[in-house]
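**User:** You know discrete backbone vocabularies at least as well as I do. Would you mind producing a protein record, from residues through to fold? Write it directly below this note and I will take it from there.

**Assistant:**
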Amino acid sequence: MSEPSDDEEEAPDESWMATFADTITLLMAFFVMLLTFSEFDIPAYEELSSALANTVGGREAQTTTQSLKIDVQDIVYEMQADQAVQVTSDEKGVVIDLDANAFFQPASAELVPAAIPVLTKLSETLASPNYELYNIAVEGHTDDGQISTDKFPSNWELSSQRASSVVRLFESNAVERSSLQARGYADTRPKVPNRDLQGAPIPENRATNRRVVLRLHPMSLQERDEYMLAQEIKREREAAKAAASVKSPSAVDLLPIRAMPDGLSEQDRQTKLALEQLKRDIYAAANESGQLAPSDVQRLKQTLATLNEVRTDSLEGIYAEIERFLNR
């Protein structure tokens, strides 16, 4: 066999083309999804973005929903509440199951004292800017044992009130109320059968079905736009309210009547008394914010002009105060 000559070129290495083609295909699928979906599925978008980052960028990318689930799990373990709280996921986001037996008084919507720190810590996380674009649906569920009291005529009222108790606590801890929902399902959505095939109650299953469920789902694009608009309006109202609460200085504040200076001549003493009377006229004409009507300004300036005829250096400061106020 003859050796290849130096003039012959080696075939180029085109193995990179396979990876390039895969990348282009993924990108094309990504942009086709953006263009074809009329209603955006935020969780699906996050998952796709994470997959693209892992495949194309070769780096671990955590979605906001994944971060939220980890943060909630950390709270549960930190508060040693893992026996009463389960954290899972569904196709839309994070699901938190609260054992009603551990969080509420029996046959009541009143939270037990030990449950409040757990819910407070959870609300602090949900109120953070990282998760403000999440809807929080709180669902109350009961077993099939019927309740009939003055406060809770049926399981509908009990389940709704338990969900509302959690919602109220969240709202009191700065979770945006527009993202909260309270729902009562009574015994219509059990996790496990309440009774066996012979119709006998299963106590452990009934205990499982007595629960409050928190569903933390990202807002849709439309909901996000509406939320951001509502927040902007809220900020504008708060700014306007704060500005209105700042009281403008009144005429009394700007034109205080001062003590008679020592060493004034009799004419200057009479002039100062006239200037004090002019200030009182200004007080009477000015509104609460110290503003004067144009006709009052003109009238008072004419009075000051008359007093200017006897103006002296001894009273110059008082003249200057009145002039500044009338010329504002």
About this structure: The CA atoms of residues 259 and 272 lie 10 Å apart. The radius of gyration is 37 Å. The chain has twelve helices and five strands.
